[in-house]
Amino acid sequence: MKKNILLFIVLVVLATAAWLVYKKNNASSIADQPLTDFAIADTASVTRIVITDLHGQHAVLQRIPGERLWKLNDKYYARADAIDLLLKTFNRISVRGSVSDRARDNVMKLLVTAGKKVEIYTTDDEPAKIYYVGNATEDHTGTYMLLEIPGIGRGEDPYITHMEGFTGFLTTRFFTSENEWRYTGIFEYPQLEFNRVRFVNHFNTNYSYEVNYKGGNDINMNSGYIASDQSFSLPISQFDTLAVKNLLLLYKKVHVESYNTLLRPEAMDSLRNTSPAFTIYVRENSGTEKHIDLYLKRASKPTLDDEGNASPWDRDYFYALTNTDEFAMAQLYTFEPLVQPVEAYFKK
Fold it and tell me: Is the full-model pTM beyond 0.70?
């Protein structure tokens, strides 16, 4: 009995050792092959990224020297979080394994018919590397990809790639939708670089207010909204300074969720011809004023309000009309703290 147990242990050890040797040799043989080095060691050198799908959509992402945000399709700013994720992927991507001979032709076909082309530039002349990105492996922990390096050529075989420290597939990071790529910031003042905030409640203008801010505790607040000239006539002598400062701190980062509203053009025109529920204005220290209009959004089915009464309005989203006359989806979670009535800032 003891001999059988000992023999079993020896067999397990030998099998494990053989597997480790095979894995090491296999990894070494892949690493020795040309066109397997997908990684970009110095992502700070990346100046432009072009992602193209087979439907003709593309996202051209351009680094702007000295600025935090990249340009998208030479029209908009691009989402910083999505750019950062791409650069991290470029830096940490590696080959996890080769594609079996049996699956190779099918994978190559999918790369051609459903893949995306990703061109990574470090100079203006030609891409440093080009990825052809396919779908995920069956276990959803790898991504089929093919590499091309100008001057060297395109790989003859696809590989299974992954990113160190991440479990999942990479395909979804390479999207082309312009609306998904767009920067969503509306008010973003990390150092509170503004001197006035105005809130107008169009349902009840008595709830509206104006905050003038000169830094620190130098704050004054007015009510008495006059619609004819959009001014405020009644100074508020007693307000909760801490509550108002907490309100101003929210303007360090205010974003809409997405420009994908699914609104038809006629629905957009209809909204533009109606009064919004709320409007927020922010005047920057430079004198530029930005604003956003918020519209109540009908729910797909009746919801309950805070008192438990049936309500036709969506409890999660507003429609938003931005300073540039574009509609977006705005989360109540983000904007509800900004549209509280003036009484919320009175001293208790």
Answer: yes
